[in-house]
User: Which sequence fits this backbone?
């Protein structure tokens, strides 16, 4: 006896059911098995997607951390270089203060050499020359 459509091997037929009739419990069990397989495949796909996202996030975080570490190292090197330059400059200023005339240093700080004889620096220069020539007594008048 040949059948038109092959029947599933796991779908049992009721013994007392007529030919071609499938038991309702078998249909439910078949549906539940298909549904469970579909849910398992979706769960696996979800786990794979979640793992992929976690890996990408971890990679991004590692690259961000490396970038920040590099920036910190670069900033520290720049700070050390600036500190060394400042220290050298400070030593040169202290040496100049010991050897040079202090009024010359004040005159350089005023910036009269670069600016020329404008009104503001001319007045400061005049005060420096007066202090150099007459001392603090010139201010007490």
Assistant:
């Amino acid at each position: 006896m040949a059948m038109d459509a092959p029947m599933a091997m796991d779908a049992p037929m009721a013994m007392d059911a007529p030919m071609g009739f499938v038991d309702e419990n078998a249909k439910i069990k078949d549906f539940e098995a298909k549904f469970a397989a579909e849910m398992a495949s979706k769960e696996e796909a979800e786990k794979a997607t979640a793992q992929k996202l976690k890996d990408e996030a971890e990679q991004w975080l590692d690259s961000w951390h490396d970038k920040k570490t590099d920036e910190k190292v670069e900033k520290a090197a720049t700070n050390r270089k600036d500190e060394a330059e400042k220290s050298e400059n400070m030593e040169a200023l202290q040496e100049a203060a010991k050897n040079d005339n202090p009024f010359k240093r004040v005159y350089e700080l005023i910036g009269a050499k670069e600016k020329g004889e404008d009104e503001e620096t001319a007045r400061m220069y005049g005060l420096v020359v007066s202090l150099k020539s007459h001392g603090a007594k010139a201010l007490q008048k």
Summary: The chain has a mean pLDDT of 80.
